[in-house]
Amino acid sequence: MENIQLISTKPEKWEYFKKNLSVSYEFINSKPGEAVDFSEIAIIAVDEIENIGKIPDAEKKRLPIVFFGNSDDFSTEIKVRKLGAVDFFYTPFDKELLMLRFKHISKMSDLSKFKTDNLRWMHTVKREMVNFQEGMAEVIAQTVESRDEYTGGHVIRTATFIGLLGEEFVEKEVLTKEQLNLIVRAAPLHDIGKIGIRDSILLKPGQLTESERIEMMQHTEKGANLIRKIQKRFASHIYLQYAYDIALNHHERFDGKGYPNGKKGKDIPFCARLMSVVDVYDALVSDRVYRKGIPKEKAFEIIFGGSGTQFDPTVLKAFDNCKDYLI
Q1: Which positions ≥6 away from 58 have C-beta within 8 Å?
Q2: Are 249 and 268 in contact (CB under 8 A)?
Q3: Which CATH number fits domain 2-119: 3.40.980.20, 3.50.50.60, 3.40.50.2300, 3.90.550.10?
Q4: Catalytic residue (one of 172, 177, 194, 263)
Q5: Residues 37-78: tens digit of each pLDDT
Q6: Is residue 296 annotated as part of the catalytic site, yes or no?
Q7: Is the distance from CB of 68 to CB of 90 less than 8 angstroms?
Q8: 141 close to 192: Cβ distance less than 8 angstroms
Q9: What is the pTM of this model?
């Protein structure tokens, strides 16, 4: 049996309902403003317009509200429907018609709840799928990195560093917080193209030959092509566009002497200009198969020496502001 919560200053007015409709519904009286447990309620009924405003907003969204007026007053009906009432009744009313409309309201309410629950479930599944897909992309990036024992943690550190650097531009309103979050999510994929580079080159302890160096440089385009393929499968993942821009362009130089396309200045995507700095910094201070990492102070000296040539001066100014937080 469904419960109908009757909110009224005149409880005696509802005796007719209790007497004639108790077969299908149980009526519960309360005064406006009284604490009410709505968890077992199917319908809320009121007889004064101001009482609608006293119903908690959460319950207005969850439960159907019906209004009982004293007459067939069209203007009152408009008002109460604007306030959220799903149906309007006036006295005297036909008992059979009232029952039919109550049953219809209950069915519509159940359908609405089903749709809401179903939509919530679908959002949850979608969110979990997005997390899984993005997690798989990061696992691929870490798998590529694991081929070289000396680069362990590089993808995580650079993502952390680019987040710190990007915060400087969020404060200046160059980036939005959402854009920075997308860039940070994209950052671990910057070297994913190295999956296509031979171990004999990737793990070589000595200096690369010219042909080997050219093959190593191809990791930018290989990575971009791989991400483009992923984009076709997961077009809704906005962060993949940032991942593409970073993978392709993070070895471009501000003076146009980088690779693979010799882009210059602001023709290089901003996210790639950020990655360029943090990528070089982490490479300098970390041990590599062919050399030991250098002290932070020496790395800062090298990086700031590349202002306007290898790196964007604006990015380096922001880097200077946050460099003390870098490991």
Answers
A1: none
A2: yes
A3: 3.40.50.2300
A4: 194
A5: 777 777 777 777 877 877 777 777 778 888 877 766 677 778
A6: no
A7: yes
A8: yes
A9: 0.61
